[in-house]
Amino acid sequence: MSRFKTFDSTGLATAGRLYAGDLNAIQDLYADLMNLTQNHGVGSLAVGESGLQLLRYGAGEARLSGAMRSDGILRALGGLYAGAFTTAARNGIAAGFRPYGLIILNTDTNQFEWNSGSDATPNWVPLGGAISQFSSQSGSYTLVAADAGKIVEVNSASANTVTVPANATVAFQVGVNVTIAQMGAGQTTIAAAGGVTLRSYGPNLKLAGQNAIASIIKRSTDDWWVAGNLIP
Which tens digit of pLDDT belongs to each residue from 33-42? Predict the structure, then answer.
């Protein structure tokens, strides 16, 4: 609320005296603090502290400079937009800003992910219901982060190898599933990089032939299940 009138100590009219009109104006200004029919134009609005501000972000868009909690249902009539992060940027979210249940869009994997762990120890898990995407390869290949949840199709006339990298090289989330399909006549073998354990029945790690398919599922840091159309 802005100052209505500056008084001096002379006691002389008008700046040194308080009139009934002054009192009425002061009361009106005070009452307007809770007048919910008002429409105010502001450049920014501090909420409880100088660092927490509501301000204009761009045309038709506002920004709250800190976190926000809603005691009721938050209705987004135009849709909800999850923050977009690369895997590296997601892993760089500072403690205190990645609580259990946080949802983000991973632009490396093109999947929505949520933190099923804790703020101290996050565990990012893809949200279910995603449509499968494909990664087409023409020969031997080492999986990359963007292959999470995808079907890797190898179309080669020659024998080839799909290698599962160590967690230190590509930090796939525990529980991630990658499907490997042999499209060509060249037999596809699933191989482990140094330090990686592949658990399969047999243990069989070669796809049975053209159009055979197998899935690998990460169960811990460098430990994967392998199952599908496999032979010795």
Answer: 777 887 878 8
Torsion of CA 195, 200, 203, 207, to 10 degrees: -100
Q: Which CATH number fits domain 134-231: 2.60.120.640, 3.40.190.10, 2.40.30.10, 2.60.40.10?
A: 2.60.120.640
Domain boundaries, the chain: 84-126, 134-231
User: Which tokens is 207 given?
Assistant: 């796809």
Can you give the pLDDT at residue 79?
87
List, as one string, the DSSP characters of 205-220: -EE-STT-EEEEEEEE
Which residue type, as a one-letter code, is found at position 45? L
Percent of the chain with pLDDT over 90: 59
Q: Is 206 exposed, middle or buried (0-12, 13-18, 19+ CB in 10 A)?
A: buried
